[in-house]
């Protein structure tokens, strides 16, 4: 009888331990993620490059996450409004922000109270060189012709860029400095789509925007690219020379990625990373990027974060030179 009672006690003890764990506490499984829709804040207007890529990414990511992935355009202050909302969002992984180079530029200029480290990077997705372009019916057939008129008649030609401090604006300023030309720079804070619309409408003589954002208009015969501001020619436009080939050593690009608030749990960030990486490998997403001449550039969240901090170091002197850094109060 005693042996039977002893054996029964061991069995009960084993069952208790299996249910509670070796530490005597009940095991707590990590919450499943995601269990509801994910939102991606795009800090720019619809139709621009960041918006287009985010929408294509969301479409490819939905079946991977098993949840809807929606786009929210929060326009204002050249991306600062949407980016600030992204930083201040709940750190639960359900609000992702489409990061662009302004994620680095705004903190340098003192436009926002947050820093790059207030975000946690998920992954890098894209990088596109900036270009100089004119309408297809423009009298300027080459970069040299455009520069010559801008030298002879300073500020007579209008150059469309994004808002002051945006990378395309800095590229425009550098373009003037390198060439000795002088344009009337027209900034468009809402995004590249508005700048391109003004170029097509004849309100601007030239534009300093990524070639990818103008790709459909170039292929439709409405816009002519004069130069790629990069070290190499673009795959989609092999006949367009770089600025360096034409005597001006310049390299400016627009890059993009995905971020979440810094306090988002690493386990959640990993799920987001793995899902968006698979989305980047989706043939439909790749076809979209190739058709739009967008450059796919994957990197891990850690490397993307390091990249953004390095960009901060590189761009700070250029912004100081342009007088775009606010004095600390």
UniProtKB/TrEMBL annotation:
Pfam families: TctC. This is ABC transporter substrate-binding protein. Belongs to the UPF0065 (bug) family. InterPro entries: BUG (IPR005064), Bug_dom1 (IPR042100). It comes from the Bacteria. Gene3D superfamilies: Bordetella uptake gene, domain 1, Periplasmic binding protein-like II.
């Amino acid at each position: 009888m005693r042996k039977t009672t002893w054996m029964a006690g061991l069995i009960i003890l084993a069952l208790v331990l299996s249910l509670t764990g070796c530490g005597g506490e009940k095991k707590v499984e990590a919450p499943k993620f995601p269990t509801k829709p994910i939102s991606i804040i795009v800090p720019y207007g619809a139709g621009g490059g960041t918006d287009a890529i985010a929408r294509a990414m969301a479409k490819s990511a939905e079946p991977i996450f098993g949840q809807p992935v929606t786009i929210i355009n929060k326009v204002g202050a050249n991306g600062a409004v949407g980016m600030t909302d992204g930083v201040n969002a709940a750190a639960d992984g359900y609000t992702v922000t489409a990061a662009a180079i302004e994620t680095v530029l705004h903190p340098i200029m003192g436009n926002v109270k947050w820093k790059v480290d207030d975000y946690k990077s998920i992954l890098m997705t894209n990088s596109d060189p900036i270009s100089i372009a004119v309408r297809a019916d423009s009298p300027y057939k080459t970069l040299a012709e455009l520069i010559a008129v801008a030298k002879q008649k300073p500020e007579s030609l209008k150059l469309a860029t994004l808002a002051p401090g945006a990378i395309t604006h800095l590229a425009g300023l550098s373009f003037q400095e390198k060439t000795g030309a002088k344009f009337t720079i027209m900034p468009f804070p809402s995004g590249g789509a508005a700048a391109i619309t003004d170029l097509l409408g004849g309100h601007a003589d030239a534009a300093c925007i990524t070639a990818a954002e103008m790709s459909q208009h170039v292929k439709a015969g409405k816009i002519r690219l004069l130069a790629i501001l990069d070290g190499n020619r673009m795959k989609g436009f092999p006949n367009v020379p770089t600025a360096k080939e034409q005597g001006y050593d310049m390299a400016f690009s627009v890059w993009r990625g995905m971020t979440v608030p810094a306090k988002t749990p690493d386990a959640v960030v990993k799920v987001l990373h793995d899902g968006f990486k698979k989305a980047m490998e989706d043939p439909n997403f790749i076809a979209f990027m190739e058709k739009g001449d967008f450059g796919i550039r994957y990197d891990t969240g850690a490397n993307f974060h390091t990249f953004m901090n390095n960009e901060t170091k590189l761009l700070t002197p250029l912004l100081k030179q342009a007088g775009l850094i606010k004095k600390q109060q």
